[in-house]
Amino acid sequence: MDHVVTLENAEARPTAVVPARTTWQDFPTQWKGMLDEVWACLNAAGISRGCRNVMLYLDDVPNVEIGVELTQPCPLRGRVVASALPAGRVAVTVHRGSYAELGSAHRAVVEWCAARGHDLAGPRWEVYGPHRDDPAEIETHVYHLLA
């Protein structure tokens, strides 16, 4: 898939997340439980839809924040905390298709930035569109914060 990369000024967006320090090996088995924990918290507050799922990778350790964009205030409990997606100049692309191929979107942004002399700050994140059963209809926005 060809990924069109553009530059944007991102505003901070409030999130409810479970933060964690993990490994790339363990992360694939952890993220779903973290996301389920956030949704259980939102459901307990009467919120069952309208919040897009997000995964924020703060660095390469990885320190991650898994959760949702908040569209309204919500009491948080347990490991679920308030945070925000970073503000600043970003390179962004839209990935259409299977989540298993999201790596190609990240590579496209990194390569596009390198070819144009844009230094990456490190944090990057994914904002997921509405769930679709057909992988061809899945849309995920991939952001990389610029230095």
Descriptive account of the structure:
- It holds the Pfam family GyrI-like.
- The protein has 147 residues and is an alpha+beta fold.
- It has a single domain (6-146), classed as Multidrug-efflux Transporter 1 Regulator Bmrr, Chain A.
- 22% of the residues lie in helices and 39% in strands.
- It is built from 2 helices and 8 strands; from the N terminus they run ββαββββαββ.
- It has helices at residues 27-44, 102-116, and strands spanning 6-10, 13-21, 53-57, 63-69, 81-85, 88-96, 120-128, 139-146.
- It has an 8-stranded antiparallel beta sheet, covered by helices on one side.
- Strand 3 (53-57) and strand 4 form a beta hairpin.
- It is globular, with a radius of gyration of 15 Å.
- The model has no long low-confidence stretch (mean pLDDT 95).
Itemize the secondary structure elements and their pairings.
Layout: E1 6-10, E2 13-21, H1 27-44, E3 53-57, E4 63-69, E5 81-85, E6 88-96, H2 102-116, E7 120-128, E8 139-146
Antiparallel strand pairs: 1-6, 2-4, 2-5, 3-4, 3-7, 6-8, 7-8
Which key features would you list for this structure?
AraC_E-bd; Multidrug-efflux Transporter 1 Regulator Bmrr, Chain A; single chain; 8-stranded antiparallel beta sheet; Reg_factor_effector_dom_sf; 8 strands; 147 residues; alpha+beta
Secondary-structure element order, as H and E? EEHEEEEHEE
**What is the overall pLDDT average?**
95
Strand content: 35-45%
Tell me the CATH superfamily.
Answer: Regulatory factor, effector binding domain
Q: What percent of the residues sit in helical stretches (DSSP H or I)?
A: 10-25%
Rounded to an integer, what's the Rg over CA atoms? 15 Å
Number of helices: 2
Q: Count structural domains.
A: 1
Low-confidence stretches: none
The second-level CATH architecture is: Alpha-Beta Barrel
Strands across the major sheet, in which order? 1-6-8-7-3-4-2-5
The third-level CATH topology is Multidrug-efflux Transporter 1 Regulator Bmrr, Chain A
Biggest sheet overview: 8 strands, antiparallel
Number of DSSP-assigned strands? 8
CATH class descriptor: Alpha Beta
